Amino acid sequence: MLFLGSERGQFEAGARPSAQMRLLTHNLLQCNKKGVQKGYPLIIQATAMKYEESPFDKDFVSAMIPKLEYDALLKALSEVRACPNIAGREALAAIPELPASLPSDHENNEEFLKTLHVVLFDLHLIEGKLVCPESGREFPVNDSIPNMLLNDDEV
What we know:
By secondary structure, the protein is of the alpha+beta class. Helices cover 24% and strands 19% of the residues.
């Protein structure tokens, strides 16, 4: 599981890291239940989200692109739009739109990189479920922490 706190996971000595479930984290998670062949991408059923602005780092966002499953990110973005409760939304005019395919000039397209940054790092899943697309197995998300543990009979 990946937790990114303040800037790129850096924390001050003695500070409690902020565990936030970002869409970047979601892009890396899958269902590993026994017998599941297609456990990715997990379906997001959000009941509470939060928008929290973080510092933009063009090089860092650009370096994340090869690690992403872009189509899964687009699907996740469409799923979070259905969330009825997004705290901090007043600071965000609207949930950002990403192009249907990765722009060919994405490394140098600062407008795209800023939008991608907001999607990956500033939208946080606080409460809800992640659902396996094949088995329907639900993984709860409470206080921004996804519980991906399987029962003994599921391993």
